[in-house]
Structures are given as C-alpha cells and as structure tokens.
Amino acid sequence: MGHYKANLRDIEFNLFEMLGRDEVLGTGPYRELDVDTAREMLKGLTRLAENEIAESFSEADRNPPVYDPVTQQVTMPEAFVRSFEAYRDSGFWNVDVPAELGGTVAPPSFRWAMNELVLGSNPAVAMFSASYGFASLLYRYGTQEQRKLARWIVENDWHCTMVLTEPDAGSDVGAGRTRAIDNGDGTWRIEGVKRFITSAESNMRDNVVHFVLARPEGASEGTKGLSLFVLTKYHVDLETGELGERNGVYVTNVEKKMGLKVSTTCELTFGGERPATGTLFGGVHNGIAQMFHVIENARMLVGTKAIATLSSGYLNALAYAKDRVQGADLTRSTDKTAPRVTITHHPDVRRSLMLQKAYAEGLRALVLYTAAQQDAVDIAQREAGTEQLERGSVGELASRVNDLLLPIVKGLGSERAWVLLGTESLQTFGGSGFLQDYPVEQYVRDAKIDTLYEGTTAIQGMDFFFRKIIKDKAESLGVLAAQIQELAKDTGSHGGALDREKELLGEGLESVQGILGFMVGELMKSDPRAEGGDVRNLYKVGQNTTRFLLAAGDLVVGWLLLRQAEVALTALARIDSGEAAEADRDFYTGKVAAAKFYARQVLPRLAAERACAEGTDNDLMDVPESAF
User: Fold this and answer.
1) Which end of the chain is more exposed for a tag (fewer CB within 10 A), N or C?
2) Are 551 and 606 in contact (CB under 8 A)?
3) How confident is the model at residue 61 (pLDDT cuts 50, 70, 90)?
4) Is the pLDDT of residue 169 over 80?
5) Which positions ≥6 away from 115 have C-beta within 8 Å?
6) What is the mean pLDDT of the chain?
7) Among 454, 522, 566, 609, which one carries the catalytic annotation?
8) For residue 2, what are the CA distances in angstroms to 50, 54, 62?
C-alpha cells in the first residue's frame, strides 16, 4: 500500500446518507448507473488509488520529469507512467466521458467523489487525465470537425491543456498579447508565448491538444477581444486519427517547482520554425465565456485536490498518533512511575486531530454538496434539452448556488488544507514530519500551489463578492443563508443535543452577514455620484474580500458538519435500539464530536472577523510604498 489513505466510508456517508444521491442514481439520465454499481466502482477505485496509482507518488517527486531543451521533449519517470497507465487501464475515467463518445452518464456528485480518490493518491494522474473533460467540452460546443477530434482525444488518450497565462499578464488575462491571424481558409495562425501550462508535454502520449486564448487581429482590448482556438502538437487526419506533420507549437521550458513536480508545468511558444495553426473553437468568437467552462471545472478540481490531500494528511497523522508513545498522561505528568501513553492521550494533540478531522470531513461535504447542485443543473438541462434554464426554476437556481460555492470550494479548500497540513498534520509527527520518511512534507509542498493557480485566493474573494453576490443581487446567497438559518433555529431535536451548536451557527451567520453589510455599505459610499461618495471607499471593500470569502466558507462548513451530526444522531439512535449495526457506532460518534468541536472552536472566531472588518479604514492605503 502506498502513502494514500482514502476515506471511503465518509464519501459514501455524504453521497448516500446526507445528500440522498441514491435517489438520483439508477434513474432518469443516470439509469445505467445504479447504487450498487456506484458503490462497487468507488470500492474498486479506492483499492487502485491506495495501491497502483499511489505507488509512484514519492518516487516521481524525487526523480521528476526530465526536459531536453534540444528536442523540446519531456521524459516522465517510469514509475509514474505505470501509475498513469494503471488508471487508464482501469476504465474508471469513463464517467468523465459523454455517452456519445462511449462514456458512462454519471451525476457530477459521483464523478467528483471518484475524482477525489485519484487527486488524493496522485494528483498529476488526475491532471494528465483531464483530457476526458476537454473532449467532452469539445464535443459539446465544437464544430463538426472539432467533434471528430474529441473522439480521437478519448480513443488515444491525448493530453489536453488550458492555455491562458502569459509571462507579463499573469492573472490579468485580458492583458494577453498572444495574437491570432486569420489564414482565410478556416484556420488561424497563433503567435506568442504562454506560461504555466499544465500537462503540455510528456512521452506518455504522442499528441497534445491545446485550448488557447488569443486575440484576433483588430479585436478589442481586454477579455472581450479574446477568442479560443484549438491546436494540436501534430496535425491530425480527423477521419482516421493518424498524425500528420508537426505543428508550430513548442515547449520551450519546463518549470522547476517547489512541489507537484511530476505534473509538467510548461512554457509554450507558438510559431518559430513553422507556423502554429489551429481552428476557432465552435466557429465563434466567444473566448472568455468558452474558457470559463474549463476554468470553473479546474477550480472545482483544485479545491477537491486540496481537500483530498488534507484528508490523507489527517489520516496519516492519526495513524502515527495512535502508535507514537511519548510522555505520561497530563494528569500524571509529575509522576515518574506513570506509564507512557500514545500521544492521542494528550489534550493538544487531540485538539489538533479533531480540528483536522472537522475540516477534512467538512470540506469534503462542501465539495459534494456543491456537486449535488451540479446534479440538479445536469438533470434539468437534460430534461429541457437546453442549457438555457428558466429563471427561478430549480435547475437555474441550483446553477447560481453552484456558482456561488465554487470560489469557496477553491479558495477556502486550498487555504485551509495548505495551512492545516503544515501547522497540524505535519506537526503531529513532530520532527519526523520534517523528514521524507513520511508523506506529509510532500503534501505540504504539493498543496501550496492550490492557493495559487486557477485564480489566487484573493481573486476568488473578489469573484465571490463582486460577481457571485453583488452582480447576482445576493439571490443565491439568500437561498443558502435561509437554509443555514433554518438549521440554526431548529432547536430541540434529538433531545437538544445540538442546541448550543446551532445557536453558535446562528451567531456565526449574523457575523458573516455583518461583514457583508459593512462591505456593501462601503461599496455604495464609493460611488462618486452619490452625496459624500468617495471612490477610495472601494479600498475598504478590497481589504476584506478574502476575509469575507474565508469567513463565509467557514460558516458553510459549520452548517454542513451540523447537518451531518443530525444524520449521525439519528443513526446512533437506531443503533441504540438495535435497528442498525453496532460496527458503525464509532463513525457516527466521531461525526457528532467533529461538529460540536467545530461549532465551539471555529465558529466563534467569525465574530472577531466581523469586528476586524467593521474597523477597516484607509490608513493602510495611505502608507507610503517606501515605508513597507
């Protein structure tokens, strides 16, 4: 068995006991995938993830891919190739492929549950396997010729890339200089340099398909002037799938990184020895909207990766703590004859482990709850035969709630995972955690990137406030807040076992709403057209967008943990009455304990965050740059 410790029991708990996905599987568009089959697939992929997929995790970090600047090719570690091929041979990736391309139609919640297992065991395997999602996108929105290419992507397992970032533009995508010149024959010539491109080269496959944002000659500045183009490393005969001449897109560098080393992060140069030619995606100039289909999926993937890593980090720390004998019990610390105990007996270790458990399981609930919104959207669109759903319908509202939650999944998931892995999971091992003897030091290095790519946490915070709340007029936020308030007021159930925790949830909701109220007020006061308006008040908003994102996320996690605790208390009652198996008692007891701990130790911090937000002024913005 490799480094990875899956939590299949908790995945199944979320899917079938809390979110009721058993009512979705085996019905409607998912009629070919019933609950029993889904459970067997989860079990099979868990075994594969903990073994063959995970086996190369450390070795590929110690012996990363080798880039040859002369041939501009990359040689992957043989161990990683074996892990990648094991996943490919398993066929589990089939759930990410549309039925028209031979895939299994599965609800997004099930797909993301499966993806967690791969992302936690060897994230680069999942990243190189993102090809299937790209193929689905190409088949869904591409031209007839591009749909043929989508079929060859699936059949040949060609790598696919999302090509946005440029060396000078960074996160300012609209500042990109890569240009597109119309060849007049249905193809376009792309010229420019792109950076930080994942999976752009390897010796595992003979072709790569690039989805490239570029600005057609004469197009407007900013993001609105960008279009999306599809280019291949080698030209393809779309009727036979045979490779033709080399296209003019080259990997001119592979980055040397802190972590996630086996995932090739490349610089791409378009043009040079020969022109880089491709076609306009979907035959329409709508680049940024098209690319957002990729970006939103990528943000969900990054958040899931971070959360899966935290979960394995916690479970590794827990296993170590149960075995590590050190010191006497605190109540007998002055007694030199007292027996030595495992460190799980020590109060601060227990605090640390329970904090890790609460976040690992709460963040998993966040991912799968968000994915359940995607289920509702997918079902509604399939039933309607269109992606354009009626405003206010169940599917359309679920779409907006999903949009609201995505920056939380990505932003909160990556931040909390990165911090907890370093400050709690690694810390549990003491000095041993700093060594390569255990996987957590690599987890810390590999997880840092999650706070950075696909939009940094600051960008997620800006998106959350300005686009997902203000632009939406807080409608989807209101739906979510109403559900949180409903649980907070539902006292007295289960003999009042969670009453105090629900009160704390309600207080946390008030704190988050207070932060939002302050920010909206400052936003309104930033309008120079209003009486006393000062555009500089917008700075006060900008100082709090990340704070608000993380506070709202912590609140949602607390709500989901308490929902889980309610399910667990019902299950414990059934065990007490003899209606359910005793074997699950510890699992459900842990669920209640995690929710109580989180409500009492994390949710009260939201009041402090509100006080900090409401105390914001612009003194910070007046400090001279030279004084920093």
Assistant:
1) C
2) yes
3) very high
4) no
5) 126, 301, 304
6) 96
7) 454
8) 6, 5, 15
Q: Residue 228: beta bridge partners?
A: 213
Torsion of CA 386, 390, 391, 392, to 10 degrees: -120
Q: Residue 174: is its pLDDT beyond 90?
A: no
Structure token pair of residue 487: 């649980």
Quickly count helices (H) and strands (E) in the chain.
21, 14
Alpha carbon 19 to chain centroid, angstroms:
19
- Per-residue model confidence (pLDDT) at position 27: 97
**CB neighbourhood size of 486 (10 A):** 10
The mean per-residue pLDDT over the stretch 148-154 comes to 98
Q: Euclidean distance between the first and final Cα of the chain, in Å?
A: 50
Q: Return phi, psi of residue 526, to 5°.
A: -90, -5
* Largest Cα span, the chain: 88
Specify whether 50 is catalytic.
Answer: no
Contact between 201 and 251 under an 8 Å Cβ cutoff? The reply is yes
Residue 230 in tokens: 């599809």
pLDDT at 442: 98
- β strands within 146-225, DSSP E: 159-163, 179-182, 188-198, 208-216
Asked if 166 and 179 touch (Cβ cutoff 8 Å), the reply is no
If we measure between CA atoms, which residue out of 538, 307, 575 comes closest to residue 416? 307
CA neighbor of 363 nearest in space, from 422, 298, 424, 414: 414
Is residue 1's pLDDT more than 80? no
Give per-residue pLDDT as tens, 302-355.
999 999 999 999 999 999 999 999 999 999 999 999 999 999 999 999 999 999
Q: How far apart are CA 61 and CA 483, in angstroms?
A: 44
Distance (Å, whole) CA 326 – CA 342: 6
Structure tokens at 11: 């995945």
Position 532 pLDDT exceeds 90: no
